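Table S7 (text form). Paired inputs.
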Amino acid sequence: MYKQAVLAGTFFAALAVILGAFGAHALKQVLTPDLLQTFETGVKYQFYHSFALLATGIIYSFIPVKQIRLASAFFIIGICLFSGSLYALALLKMNGMVGLGGLGILTPIGGVFFILGWVVLMMGLISKK
């Protein structure tokens, strides 16, 4: 087992539950429907990739190749950039700020890291003889 990936997966999953509840209860009253949808998209992708981290941690027990560890790192970076930027965007707009400005590029960069994580995971699985 790749313990760091499993720990990160459980941490990000727990955080997604907290943020999802926060969005559904506290933010529902103050965000527009579009901003609430943006926040929920961040939570959804955080959850998906929390499970991906759990899977990579377990897969590493059977296929201990560097690509599996790299995929885990890409998923963590993707969660921080993609979901984190969506949370920040929703909360900044809620407070009357225009948005992330030039930092808005973090969302698609985070998406690229998610894609890289899946591709590198696949490469690791294929590399096993």
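Next pair, protein 2 of 2.
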Amino acid sequence: MAFGTQDDTDEVMNEINMTPLVDVMLVLLIIFIITVPVMKHSVNVDLPRATSQPQDARPETIRLSVDAQGQYWWNEAQVDAKTLPALLAAEARKNPQPELHIRGDRAVRYEKVAEALAQAQQAGLRKIGFITEPK
């Protein structure tokens, strides 16, 4: 015979736990409260019709190459080192300002590429990048 301690723990619970169901219903209610105003337009407005051309004002790209002998090439045209600052200054005055892509040969002295970079910065060009080949 058992003396009361085991009978208390063996009782089966006959009621459904409603707390998780209420939590799910509250979350769904909040979701519907938030999404219904987004889906419904509050003011009907007859918008005017107009045609417009999209502006494609892309700045041009200038390729400044430095070959193995240290010679400068401006978009595949050879340029003297003395005329390079004038060309860079003319491009810096344009609106929108073009991008300058510097391509330095692997065999060229770093000094030549650094001079071109310094001249571009002194001219006022802000968009300067280096072009390399992937491995």
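Residues 61-130 form a domain with the Nucleotidyltransferase; domain 5 fold (CATH 3.30.420.270).
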